[in-house]
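Course assignment 3, question 2. Fill in each field.
Student: A.L.
Task: Predict the tertiary structure for the chain below.
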Amino acid sequence: PIQGDAGLVVPPAKFLKDLRKLCDENGILLFSEEVQQGFGRTGKWFGIENFDVVPDAIILGKAIASGLPLGGCVARAELMDDWEAPSHLFTAAGNPVCCAAAVATINVIRDENLLQHTADLGSHVKARFEEMQEKYELIGDVRGIGLSIGVDLVKDRETKERHREAAAKIAYRAWEKGLLLSFFSGSVLRIQPPLVISKEQMDCALDRIEEAIEDFVKGRIPDSVLETVKGW
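Answer field:
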């Protein structure tokens, strides 16, 4: 429900409710693609839970097995039972090692209370970036839920023109400081750390990002880095 690589765009709460209503009125199935936002990333098991909407099906992947190749589709019984064999059969499906990794991932999220940890830490991270936004004009927007946060860099807050140069240089300087920071959709810094990250580790990363932003604002990052930094 939250656009990922498009820049971590969070839809208005009413949008998904209206979309659910539209689908119901026209016999359309509503799928929630949870490959990037699922399994705790937003502080809920699935991103769609943040909007109080029940989809007809959920698409899973990536975090379900902590990086091992596994994906899935979960839907209401009447939908899954309607598939005719072998439409649900795939050569690499049901790999036992990947399935074991998925079970272990679910156990860690549950046993280590990572949903609450992610929600709490996400609020802290957003607050830190909002403080930076007050200091730096190039931060046009801070958005996201849990530990799925996008920091949109702009040349002008009124026009919202993307500032790709700023994103590239800041990501490069962060790398020089020992922090891997990516950006996508041209100018959005991607803040999606591992859910097990501690507050101390997160603050260290945030400090380095702010130092990189300061270096950009002061003109301390050469244009030559733009030849190697491409972003997502």
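Instructor remarks: The first strand starts at residue 31 and ends at 33. The longest helix spans residues 114-135.
Grade: pending
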